[in-house]
Amino acid sequence: MSGQQDILKVAMPKGRIYKQASKLFREAGLPIPVDFDDSRKLIIEVPDARMEFIMAKPVDVPTYVEYGVADIGIVGKDVLMEENKDVYELLDLGIAKCRMSVIGLPDWKPAIHPRVATKYPNVASQYFRELGQQVEVIKLNGSIELAPLIGLADRIVDMVETGQTLRENGLVEMESIFGITSRLIANRVSYRMKNDQIQKLCDLLQHTLAAKA
Amino acid sequence: MSKPKVFEKPIGVKDYLPLAVAKLRRIERQALDCMSQWGYEQIITPTMEFYDTVGVASATSDQKLFKLLNNRGTTLVLRSDMTAPIARVVSSLLKETAFPLRLSYHANVFRAIEEEAGRDAEFYQTGVELVGDPSAEADAEVVALAIASLKAAGVERFKIAIGHVGFLNGLFEETLPNRPEAQEALKACLLGRDYVGYREKLRELKLAEPVQRELEGILRLRGGQEICDQAMEMSVDATAKSSIKHLCEIWDVLKAYGVCDNVLIDLTMIGDFSYYTGMTFEGYAADLGFPVVSGGRYDNLLTQFGRPAPATGFALKTTRILELLGSEEEPQPERVLIGYDALGREAALEQAQQLRAEGVIVVTVRMEAAEANANSAKQSGYAKFIPFFGAQESKGEQTK
């Protein structure tokens, strides 16, 4: 195998996770330049590492990988839980740590018609169904914390990193649903067809993570 | 949903235009020819089956079955695969026919899908079932035939991964005796391809250090024959050992077939535990994100139809192969256009029949002599134009 075959296509999430992921890649000895994220290019070749980065919106990473247009990808567990795509979840990269939580006002009381606002409707529905509660899930695209403050919903399900936003808006974390870190995922076919390359990358990253721990 | 627009069709179903059909039919024909050369005879079963028989027995989960009611209120399903219908036929119409049975099929199958997934709700499968032979030879035969069929269909770069459900069943039973929930949880992680979750579950179980390392190690059991040797060392459980022995035998037979270059052993490659009972495999083509073939051994299915028998088989996803080969130029057969007027009709149609008998594609069009000269648009796309105008014989061929 040669040429195109050797290039590993990596779906990279733009923004916060990218900085930490590329740092981890560099620590693992992969020659990834520092300043990619500022560029507006969507596809970036990294010939030294035999890789090609596809700069994607984080929620789209599992889709690219499922369809095989990217061989592997880096994505938060929150997105994986919400999107529920058929991909291999190979490695916990331990970066971009936070948690998915139920949040409400401190004086919250059970509502007659409970409403939950969230960016993660699948995660929220599943969580409350498992608790045996039927709630109305409202999908919002940002500023989720507004919902309980203005009476759109009595609770929200959202990612909590430091809890700073919550405190500033007088909200409290009621329950933690699951912990979130970024994961290395792989396409079903690529995992077999490019197994050597993917396994090697996995081992490198795993060693780096073990050394840090 | 609002009323559909006239061009719309339900999500997940497709039209195939002439060029695509020509390619798809060629892929199917080449695969079926290959299967018939290996002694597999083609059968046809109905598109609809009873929910309570074939529907329940099939490997497709309940919510993915297309269900409908007949005029008596009985629930029917659109077949979701061909394996369960063939099991029904083998246990009824072919009840008296001795094993082993080698059957092939080519059929459209139906799966209800989630709307956004972009998967097909109807697609085509070409495949085989080898019923009544429990041996490693039989498993190797279907793997080798899957490889031969892929090659025949024109797929060049591909890999087949083989696993065995018995190995993990045995290994888990040995390392986690009498802990079915823990075993189920670990299997669910592997089935969901969630290796991170699998490692987390292992840590939660707080097993002895060597056991944990061993169970984590199976995530790396992938490669050639050496994997069998490694796996053999890992477990003393009888099920696990006999599974690995079976897999080693399959490998030896595949070596004799000369196809090991295309095969890798992957002990984490597991199919649905409730359906598959032994060897399972999946085939992957370079440059295509989804598997092109899947199969395995299902020794419990025929029991549900009253004729217990071991069985193994596979299905090629021909519509995916079409996606893979879709951009390749298909050789176009030569087409001839015959134009005639009232007087030339008899001679023209006779000539057309004669050429068709020789295997040439002939289209006949009634036209005026003047049109034939002026209007080349009517003649474009044809290799040759033969005019029959007036009372006399053809004035000779006019090659474009």
Automatic annotation (TrEMBL), chain A:
It is an enzyme of class 2 (transferase). Lacks the C-terminal regulatory region which is replaced by HisZ. GO terms for biological process: L-histidine biosynthetic process. It comes from Paenibacillus curdlanolyticus YK9. Heteromultimer composed of HisG and HisZ subunits. Keywords: Amino-acid biosynthesis, ATP-binding, Cytoplasm, Glycosyltransferase, Histidine biosynthesis, Nucleotide-binding, Transferase. Its EC number is 2.4.2.17. It catalyses: 1-(5-phospho-beta-D-ribosyl)-ATP + diphosphate = 5-phospho-alpha-D-ribose 1-diphosphate + ATP. Its main location: cytoplasm. This is ATP phosphoribosyltransferase. Belongs to the ATP phosphoribosyltransferase family. Short subfamily. Residues 57-206 form the ATP phosphoribosyltransferase catalytic domain. GO terms for molecular function: ATP binding; ATP phosphoribosyltransferase activity. The keyword Nucleotidyltransferase does not apply. InterPro entries: ATP_PRibTrfase_cat, ATP_PRibTrfase_HisG, ATP_PRibTrfase_HisG_short. GO terms for cellular component: cytoplasm. Pathway: Amino-acid biosynthesis; L-histidine biosynthesis; L-histidine from 5-phospho-alpha-D-ribose 1-diphosphate: step 1/9. It is found in: Cytoplasm. The keyword Cytoplasm applies. Catalyzes the condensation of ATP and 5-phosphoribose 1-diphosphate to form N'-(5'-phosphoribosyl)-ATP (PR-ATP). Has a crucial role in the pathway because the rate of histidine biosynthesis seems to be controlled primarily by regulation of HisG enzymatic activity. It holds the Pfam family HisG. It comes from the Bacteria.
UniProtKB/TrEMBL annotation, chain B:
L-histidine binds at D81, M82, T83, R111, Q125, E129, Y275, Y276. It comes from the Bacteria. It is found in: Cytoplasm. CDD domains: HisRS-like_core. The keyword Nucleotide-binding does not apply. One of its GO terms (biological process) is L-histidine biosynthetic process. The keyword Disulfide bond does not apply. One of its GO terms (molecular function) is transferase activity. GO terms for cellular component: cytoplasm. PANTHER family: HISTIDINE--TRNA LIGASE, MITOCHONDRIAL-RELATED, HISTIDYL-TRNA SYNTHETASE. This function is generally fulfilled by the C-terminal part of HisG, which is missing in some bacteria such as this one. Heteromultimer composed of HisG and HisZ subunits. Belongs to the class-II aminoacyl-tRNA synthetase family. HisZ subfamily. This is ATP phosphoribosyltransferase regulatory subunit. The lineage of its organism: Bacteria, Bacillati, Bacillota, Bacilli, Bacillales. The gene is hisZ.
